[in-house]
Amino acid sequence: MAPRPAGRPRAFDRDEALRHAAHLFWQHGFSGTSTRMLTAALGISSSSLYAAFGTKADLFAEAIRSYALRYSAIYERAVAEPTAAAVVERLLLESVTEFTRTDEGHPGCLTSSAVMADTSSTFDVRKYVAGLQRTDEARLRGRLEQAARAGELPPTVQATMLADLVQTLWQGLSTRAELGATREELIAVATFAITLIPQESTNS
Amino acid sequence: MAPRPAGRPRAFDRDEALRHAAHLFWQHGFSGTSTRMLTAALGISSSSLYAAFGTKADLFAEAIRSYALRYSAIYERAVAEPTAAAVVERLLLESVTEFTRTDEGHPGCLTSSAVMADTSSTFDVRKYVAGLQRTDEARLRGRLEQAARAGELPPTVQATMLADLVQTLWQGLSTRAELGATREELIAVATFAITLIPQESTNS
DNA sequence: CAGATTATGGAGCGAATGATTCAGAATAGA
DNA sequence: TCTATTCTGAATCATTCGCTCCATAATCTG
């Protein structure tokens, strides 16, 4: 269903190139990454890069889009857990694992790279990422409110407040990953935070 | 005690120029902010800028330092509190207030702006900021370890771990401030988080 | 006043930037 | 094989970059 198009075939793996590019963007930022750094790292010429991805801003936008979806997927899997505690635990731990991935040229956490405003691409990266995160937050809040109605949370704990707290932790873990914290450190922090969240009677 | 030096006096306010420069750097990052943007926004010529601040990296570093000092001051005041709980509370609440300042052209929070996302080959921004924050983190950790030795914390709570958690919350609050959260929301989150931190017997 | 000192604006340097052009190479369908 | 199509590498375009030079202006001390 993906018929080889006419013409000379591309001599490099587009997906792999995209991953390398994302890695560079994550390390140096948008303006901090030059097209020459990209072509050198990808091992292709400038014209090949432009033919495959368009302008630098287009390439950046595509990199952001392809990786931002991973976070949404984590939220989606997390809220499917049966209890509020399991939801929070899975969300934080899987996110930490994702933030600190270094294998296969994975770019790490792109959230703060996305904050850049001056891309001037036709695609508004900032707005896109902000919207995606709003959706994720809403999903978590909805799930915790549902848990509250099910009596999973002590009456002193408002679901919205707990969602805000988890979200704050999530952002903090992301930032610390970017500052160089190791996976073990962040997992320890996340685990510790989870133990502090009060649950209804069944435990502690 | 600040005798007017010989020579032609500077025609612009150095501190105000530094604030403007910081504002631009926060918005566009280091490599995203050109010297021409700076001179245009500051209303001065290139030679004046270089005479007053040195290179672009020097100007950037000075801008970072001047704002990092605010956070250091908060940490310093916080660790002077008599109890661990008071330390954490003061740290988080005062930081939130600082993060959400909007007066006098305050450029917003340093740590989660575009500053962190945009580096250059000649200046490793992340490493520089991380280094400045390490001092604050060490101060907090030392204070909590002291509290642990004084028996203020339950034996199940390691001081280092608690410090890491508070630090993670701090980063998260900063990011959420940058994303547009209001002061009231963040204060509510911080207050809620503080209530979850266990204390030794004297208070439930 | 004269001499020393410092700041200013404008011009412009060499290097790097994002992006394009173009002749040629590699494929598909006919 | 021939034509249409697509990709490649090298050269290179115009622009912008960080930064400096320099003649001049404004202030100091004496």
From TrEMBL, chains A, B:
InterPro entries: Homeodomain-like_sf (IPR009057), HTH_TetR (IPR001647), Tet_transcr_reg_TetR-rel_C_sf (IPR036271), TetR_C (IPR011075). Gene3D superfamilies: Homeodomain-like (1.10.10.60), Tetracycline Repressor, domain 2 (1.10.357.10). Residues 11-71 form the HTH tetR-type domain. Residues 34-53 bind DNA. Pfam families: TetR_C_13 (PF16925), TetR_N (PF00440). Coiled coil: none annotated. Keywords: DNA-binding, Transcription, Transcription regulation. This is TetR/AcrR family transcriptional regulator. It comes from Paractinoplanes ovalisporus.
